[in-house]
Design brief:
Helix content: under 10%
Number of strands: 4
Order of helices and strands: EEEE
Radius of gyration: 12 Å
Distance between the termini: 30 Å
Strand order of the largest sheet: 1-2-3-4
Oligomer: single chain
């Protein structure tokens, strides 16, 4: 499972291949310093719209090889104006809403 908390000054975190099944709204709370997050190769099926709301400095995000799918909405990546790299390979996503990536860097 995802750690209950991380130090607020964490800038990079790799959880690649940890069989994490889900994230909740507070999983990344108070993580404004985070610039790189690797969630690849897990089993993440639940990804709330606001899970990334506190990681406003995020530049690099790997969510590839997870079970995340159609629950991604326009709000999922809203406010991530610095995001330069996003990987969603090998997921259950079959379509994405219009304007999904409007705010991205």
């Amino acid at each position: 499972s995802f750690p209950a908390s991380l130090p607020e000054d964490t800038t990079e975190a790799t959880f690649y291949g940890n069989k994490i099944p889900s994230l909740n709204s507070t999983s990344l709370a108070n993580m404004a310093a985070m610039t790189e997050l690797n969630l690849g190769n897990n089993s993440i099926a639940t990804f709330p719209d606001d899970v990334l709301s506190d990681v406003t400095n995020l530049e690099w995000l790997n969510m590839g090889n997870n079970k995340v799918g159609s629950q991604l909405t326009v709000a999922t990546f809203q406010g991530l104006t610095k995001l330069e790299y996003l990987s969603l390979y090998n997921t259950k996503i079959t379509s994405l809403p219009d304007k999904m990536f409007l705010d991205l860097g």
